[in-house]
Amino acid sequence: MIELGKRQKLQVVKIVDFGVYLAQAARDEEKVLLPAKQVPQGTAVGDSIEVFVYRDSKDRLISTTAQPKLTLGEVASLRVAETGKFGAFLDWGLEKDLFLPFKEQTRKVAAGDEFPVALYIDKSSRLCATMKVYHYLRTDSPYKKDDRVTGYIYEISRQFGAFVAVDNCYSALIPPKEMYGELKVGQTVSARVTSVHEDGKLNLSVREKAYIQIEKDAVRIEESMKERGGKLPFSDKADPQLIRAEMAMSKNEFKRAVGYLLKAGKIEISENEIRFCQGRGKAE
């Protein structure tokens, strides 16, 4: 059986003016055309040729010796060539661009955008792309705890967190408690591996290990205080939501960083504000 969307070795069973017909075996009725411009010189009946099988602009089964950027079941980062009435078209290295239906988009896309997609066969037996790559991502990454990785956020769930395609191919998640700043779909993030599940999926954090992060958080607090004239209009006793909204950190992280600055003699704390110690702040 000739497999749509895959590279495979097929046998030349017939030579015509406009190319050659390929099949898995000489007597098979199922055949696919390899156009003449792609037929290797000196090809004869009985030869084997490795090809990729897809559908042309008229939805006819056809083969090519060209190497597409994506095959069935894989994930790869592709660029939008153009958008249309029913979806977008992606450059995947073949003459006919790959169709990305609106229903398979997780955000609005525009020409020139690049993001990871998977290749699948739709109900009409056509090859299409999907941005919903969760079930296609690999779980055999080489990464371990505390490794730094780069990934693309392809979906965000309030319940589960931010779903990330690390290296555009490995399955990863930033849990809600590790989501800081303005994370959004379509964003590329640098993160730290916090754990590797038994099934191979990665858990990530956009923050450093605690002892490193405390210093970074302390610097952020100092910078924020300088921008506000040398003080913050709230203390470490403030509502956690306020702290997260203002400082992009949890209340515990904020308290640790404030404690670090207090111990260093840089700040003073009152019931409703934090201010630089006398002689520090604006001029520094």
List the keywords:
elongated; 14% helix; 284 residues; 5-stranded antiparallel beta sheet; 18 strands
One letter per element, helices H and strands E, the order comes to: EEEEEEEEEEEEEEEHEHHEE
Taking all Cα atoms into account, the compactness measure Rg is 27 Å
The span between the termini is 73 Å
Shape estimate:
elongated
Summarize the main sheet.
5 strands, antiparallel
Low-confidence residue ranges: none
**Helix-strand makeup class:** mainly beta
- Spatial strand order of the main sheet: 3-2-1-4-5
Helix content: 10-25%
How much of the sequence lies in strands comes to 35-45%
Number of E-state strands: 18
Q: What would you say this structure looks like, in words?
A:
This protein has three helices and 18 strands. The radius of gyration is 27 Å and the shape is elongated. The protein is mainly beta and 284 residues long. The longest helix has 18 residues. The termini are far apart. The model has no long low-confidence stretch (mean pLDDT 89). Helices cover 14% and strands 36% of the residues. The strands form four sheets. A five-stranded antiparallel beta sheet has the order 3-2-1-4-5, with no helix packed on it. Strands 8-7-6-9-10 form a five-stranded antiparallel beta sheet, with no helix packed on it. Helix 1 crosses helix 3.
